[in-house]
Amino acid sequence: MKEITLKGNSLIRFCSVLLLLFALIFGPIFTHFVHAATATVSVFPSTVTSSVGQNFSIDVKIANVFDLYGWEFKLSWNPILLDAVNVTEGPFLKQGGDTIFFNKINNTEGYLLVDCTRLGEVPGVSGSGTLATVKLYVEGTGESILDLYDTILVSSDEQSIPHQSTDGYGYFAPLHDVAVISIVASPITVLPGQAIHINVTVQNQGSYAESFDITAYYDTKIIETQSVSLGIGASTILTFTWNTTGINKGDYTLSAEASVVSGETDTTDNIKVDGIVTVLSFGHDVAVKGVTPYKTIVGQGYPLTIYVAAKNYGIFTETFNVTAYVNSTIIQTKNVTLTSGNSTTIKFTWNTTSVAKGNYTISAYAWSVPGETDIDDNTHIDGTVAITIPGDVNADGIVDIEDIVICAVAFGSKPGSPKWNPIADLNGDGVIDIEDIVIAAIHFEERDC
Question: Which domains does the chain carry?
Answer without folding.
Answer: 39-173 (2.60.40.680), 178-279 (2.60.40.10), 281-388 (2.60.40.10), 392-449 (1.10.1330.10)
